[in-house]
Amino acid sequence: xxxxxxxxxxxxxxxxxxxxxxxxxxxxxxxxxxxxxxxxxxxxxxxxxxxxxxxxxxxxxxxxxxxxxxxxxxxxxxxxxxxxxxxxxxxxxxxxxxxxxxxxxxxxxxxxxxxxxxxxxxxxxxxxxxxxxxxxxxxxxxxxxxxxxxxxxxxxxxxxxxxxxxxxxxxxxxxxxxxxxxxxxxxxxxxxxxxxxxxxxxxxxxxxxxxxxxxxxxx
Length: 219
Known about the structure:
Blueprint: E1 4-11, E2 16-23, E3 28-32, H1 38-48, E4 51-56, H2 62-65, H3 68-79, E5 85-86, H4 93-96, H5 99-106, E6 125-128, E7 131-137, E8 146-150, E9 155-157, E10 162-163, E11 166-167, H6 177-188, E12 196-198, E13 205-206, H7 207-213
Parallel strand pairs: 3-4, 4-5, 9-12
Antiparallel strand pairs: 1-2, 2-3, 6-7, 7-8, 8-9, 10-11, 12-13
């Protein structure tokens, strides 16, 4: 089994969990949802001593994607190798193209629009720290939200779909509560109670714990 390690790096005033995941043996890594505070992310990468192969986005909200292009540019300069942005689903293109304007409204500096090098579809795979993770399209919080899962490792990165004791908000004009719950119940929970997950805000959990105790999920 690979020796994967993970660090959660809170970024932006929203305290979004940017995730750095790397293989302790190969020192190949992936950054997921670099919403901002790029110097802090770069410091965490340097501390881990890893080389970043790619940047993944679960969805297009500014606190998850606002630092993606700055991080990509910094990594290309430092590593002399590409670090492509992958994801989310193309349905979030309108969110990614509106990050800079929204950041100005919130008074958050240095966030920029993002253009992925690769859009993701359900059923595709991405590499996280050298391991294959399946892509699931789980809209509701955002139309193009995707989740990354590896059943063999018993591990998932779910962004703002599911939290410990809560779920992603759906009170946006494009939100869809029924779609969010349907995705959790039909796509995530069947992967097994033992699946651990990192989420976009707060501590992680397991699908089993949320199935049993999360008050927002049907019994």
